[in-house]
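Appendix B. Raw example, untouched.
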Amino acid sequence: MRGPNRQAHRWGKTKGKIGFHGGLVEIERPRLRGFDGKERALPSWEAAVAEDWLGKWAMNQMLINVSTRKFRRSVRLPEGDVPSPAGSGLSKSAVSRRFVALSTAHMKKWLASDLSELDLLVIQIDGIHMDEDMTLVAAIGVDAKGDKHPLGLAEGATESAATVQALVENLIERGLDPMVPRLFIIDGSKALSKAIRRNFGRDAAIQRCQIHKARNIQERLPKSLHASVRRVLRQVWELDDADKAEKLLRNLARRLERDWSGVAGSILEGIEEILTVTRLGLPDQLRRSLACTNMIENVMGTVRRVCRNVKRWNSPSMAMRWTAAAMQEAAKGFRRLKAHKQLPLLRKALLERQAKFASSNRVAQTAEPA
């Protein structure tokens, strides 16, 4: 800028490379020379170079399943006006390096983000098997407004209590208050239930996915029994009275006890956690939304789609990077919970449940010395 405060003047031109349309292009830029005789950096050029356009292009293309081998073709037409010579940053190795760098940075930022400002009422936790000896456990939260948030991710060899514990500890370290009553929705894994009760109290409200439960029951029975069992289970899920629903489940187990004792035991296993949303007295629409793990299952579907070009997982950190990027991609399409207007009723029910169990525990502790 001309004026009395000017500190440099133009000093010819030079060539430099800048990110454009997925790769590097060579352009001319002016040079600046200070009145002290030393070359000065051009602020506009420094800002343009600092902006990681190439990393963003690589990330975007990889998330929509463009392979590194086809990246050049996806951003530059062979007969187009923008050339793609060697050194333009369009090789598969260059694209891979940029994706690794940016996805790692995004994952670290996400896994260190503050959760204390989120008024979470619901948390869904589920695992996804990436390889024979590699499982990731993820968490999705729903706040009081009905908005959904990807919360965290942890790796392990199996969906064990230790893996879930690592995830939960990360959430608590980032500001998730374990004293606030919430509804936890899981697929029925005992490891998940164990870790939740260890960190959020033995009286934590846990809802097992009713869809998973019904599917597991039917898969163990012959087709001739599918229709009748499905009819009973549908009736159970739709009942407002938890005691009547439990009675129907026990009657179903009793009917199957003689010929299918294992299935009967499966029906009764975790029966309290299957009917948690019913015992909370939630309205029909909200109860249907919170009786299954569909929210996190949809996220896992996005993870599988994004990762389908990966042929081999070299390490758990690689799987973490890809899955974290896919979960952030899925979050772009999150919609508010359908029954979000009824969430105040969930908060009220959880507080009443917490107070009830706290009162029962005090009575039990008082009675022990006597």
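End of appendix B.
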